[in-house]
Write a structure and sequence with these properties.
2 copies of one chain form a homodimer.
Chain A lengths: L3 H4 L1 H8 L10 E3 L6 E4 L5 E11 L10 H18 L3 E11 L5 H18 L2 E9 L4 E11 L14 E5 L9 H4 L4 H9 L5 E4 L4 H11 L3 E5 L11 H6 L6 E5 L1 H10 L6 E8 L6 E3 L6 H4 L1
Parallel strand pairs in A: 4-5, 9-12
Antiparallel strand pairs in A: 1-2, 2-3, 3-6, 4-6, 7-10, 7-11, 8-10, 9-11
Helix pairs in contact in A: 3-4, 3-6
Chain lengths: ~300, ~300
């Protein structure tokens, strides 16, 4: 029997959503990017729409503070809205929880949601609470972006340089609960029309880069020696740990030199590769036998 | 220790969301109604935003067909959007599922979502899938309404007549999986500016009417003998079963006579009570000793 465990999440999502329209009526871009894009009430801006969920045992533990769990749940969505070049507007929260969970713990989780809403200027607009066997938080977020500045995964072209913000790997040491979505950096990139394609790194560069390249109908070369690695981590951690919530984006060679000179943030910015012709196989440089991609 | 099981859902939600603003920036109405209301890109329309979830074991059983489970999950949100006088635009879906669930069953659930999207003209715009111990579907829906036609729970006044659509009770015999949200009826009421306050009946009249009355700062008289009861059900079922997904609305006495004459639908329409001064205690007429409200 074909199940989620033996078919793989990407494959299942593709199967389940294969019939969903990618563009229909008010929906300009459907499944397949960090957020859906919907036409807004004006011609100047579009709405971004996203759902994301975290579960106890998978994304956080019973020992983690509620404040950090709430922050994480909301910040993951902010990161997705940012990765499209948008600002978060509003979130609604589904809390599925065992009936034995203390109100104090739930309140702490909600305070974490609130601290993220304060930090990133969106409103918590509605909630749903249901009894369940396992604590799960599902957040849906609405954002907004200027119509001509939305950054899709599909806008890259062969020759575009690939950049990442921050350092990669080691998220389980704590960063997965405390990361700061790169909203300012993403808005600066979108406003300056410097990036051609963008996404946030939620599953690790080794999983996410092939997604961006595929959406842009490109292949890629990845420069292993330049990848910014969190102190104490290995290259494998940087490629595969996931939950970095850094930005991965493509940028034309011409814009790349402007980008490097004008980057106004303390956040590290590193060129890690290049998009190539779709006829070429993805290449890890130097070709050192590192086979992380093949294992997936 | 204070937990969800001993404090009650309404009380917990109030505690958890007490700090959330009811009105802030683009958010015109926050928690406390069927949907949140956000200002849209134009001055003519507003956005409605809602999240809702169903869990296996509580809202559906492993023996229920996936098609009906998907329909139910989406139709519950449509009912909430309708109850505000809006049309659904777009939904995003969080599927939390045990890894042993067959892809065939998940596909059937997704076909149920799609049939609801087709029937009510909204798009399925994005999805999130996570592994969990229990099958849970959380749907967030975005809708739209003309700015001056949004129907809140809080618009009622003493003297307004109370009406319900359809028949109440007995949802567990099957209707909870197959109900048709009263979208056309709700849009007609909103367009004609006939209702002063409206909500959908999800928890049963005995729970929901006090919520509408409280939001409108009113008390109420309920005419027990007029309540439209599903064939084979008792009054207690009609008051308490929940998951009717019928409309409950208030209407001025003057508009009530127009309403009854002009109602163009085959859907039954019944006057079940009246909003009264908040100084009066809620009254069940005839005062027959039925104490369903007191037990809650």
């Amino acid at each position: 029997m074909n199940t989620l465990s033996n078919a793989g999440e990407d494959s299942i999502i593709q199967t389940l959503t294969a019939r969903w329209p990618r563009c229909s009526g008010r929906m300009l871009h459907g499944v397949g990017d960090d957020c859906a894009v919907l036409s807004g009430g004006s011609t100047k801006s579009v709405l971004l729409f996203k759902t994301d969920a975290i579960a106890e045992g998978s994304h956080f533990l019973p020992t983690h503070p509620g404040l950090k769990i709430g922050w994480k749940a909301a910040a993951r969505c902010v990161s997705d809205i940012a990765a499209m070049g948008g600002k978060p507007l509003s979130a609604v929260v589904t809390l599925a929880t065992p009936q034995t969970t203390s109100v104090r713990r739930l309140d702490s989780i909600y305070r974490g949601l609130e601290s993220c809403a304060d930090a990133y200027s969106f409103t918590l607009s509605g909630g749903e609470t249901i009894a369940s066997q396992q604590l799960i938080l599902s957040i849906a977020m609405l954002g907004e972006a200027p119509q001509n500045r939305v950054l899709l995964r599909s806008g890259g072209a062969p020759g575009d340089h690939l950049w990442v913000t921050g350092k990669l790997g080691g998220s389980l040491r704590g960063k997965h609960l405390t990361f700061r979505p790169r909203l300012d950096e993403a808005l600066w990139l979108a406003h300056g029309q410097l990036a051609t394609a963008m996404m946030d790194l939620s599953d690790g560069l080794a999983s996410d880069l092939p997604r961006l390249a595929k959406a842009s109908r490109c292949s890629f070369d990845l420069f292993l020696e330049t990848i910014p690695i969190t102190r104490g981590c290995s290259l494998e951690h940087a490629l595969g740990d996931g939950e970095d919530f850094e930005l991965l984006f493509a940028c034309s060679p011409k814009a790349s030199s402007r980008l490097a000179a004008a980057w106004p943030f303390r956040t590290e910015l590193t060129r890690v590769g290049v998009l190539t012709s779709p006829k070429k196989a993805p290449t890890l440089l130097p070709t050192c036998g590192f086979d992380h991609f093949k294992k997936r």
